[in-house]
Structures are given as structure tokens and as C-alpha cells.
Predict the structure.
Amino acid sequence: MAEGHSVERAENIADGLTVTVPAGTFDRCFKVFESNTLEDDFGATYKVHCPGVGLMGEGPLELVAYGFNIEDITVGPIPASPVKVERKITDDQAKQIALEKIPGEVIGVALERKLGDKRIVVEVIAAED
């Protein structure tokens, strides 16, 4: 392998799981082991995904809320100007919901589209007790 190039690997290690996180309980989930040869510990992480929701957790991180029905008000080809998005909650409201579930520091907020659904993702570093 050439210097500076990684070899990433993902392996499904369990399926048919029922997973409970702060956002709720979900069925038919699967667990994936991922690694990266460039990381000191080979970037070893476990991720859990559930149908219709997506990533439930990675390491100590867990999904705390989802399903705010964020809808585009435009449909069709990508326009030349930015797409106007009608949202049911603001970034600040999403941060407040996340911090009520997991006290800590918000390090990122993003609007994402996964499998046709739109959601606000809030990344929180949990406060140490």
C-alpha cells in the first residue's frame, strides 16, 4: 500500500436488532464494524443503522431525536439559485432539543437528506459528569 493511502473496511456483524436510544426503540436494525488503516487504532468503530431512520449511534454517540418532517417547497430539477426550504423547527430549536436529551456542547448542526428524508442533525459532545 502506498504511504498515506488508507484501506477502509466495513463488515455487517449483526442484523435483526432492536435498538433503544434516547430517540426511541427501533426494530430490524443492523450493526457494522468499520476500520481504517491510517488510524492509530485502525479507526475501529461500531455503528448501528435502522431502516427509515439511518445512523442510530457510533461509539458513545446516540440519536436523540428525529422525524421533524422538514419539507422542500420546490420539486423538480436543481435550480440555479438556492432552494428555499420550509422547516418546522429552527437550528436553535433543534439544538435545544438535543441539549435537553444530552447536556454538553453543540459542535455542529446540519440539514441532511438520507433516503429521500430530510432531517436536522445536531452533533453534541456530552458534558463530563
